[in-house]
Amino acid sequence: MRPIAVGKKNWLFTGSERAGRRAAASETLFATAKLNGLDPTR
Known about the structure:
Largest sheet: none
Number of strands: 0
Shape: elongated
Distance between the termini: 21 Å
Order of helices and strands: HH
């Protein structure tokens, strides 16, 4: 939960609604991978 809370502050000014949606989609993919025991950075 902490990375998401920190991210909210960082993503407050994403530039556009489209960029915000893209950031949310990528964060969802990373979080899902972590929940499934995968390392998404490898």
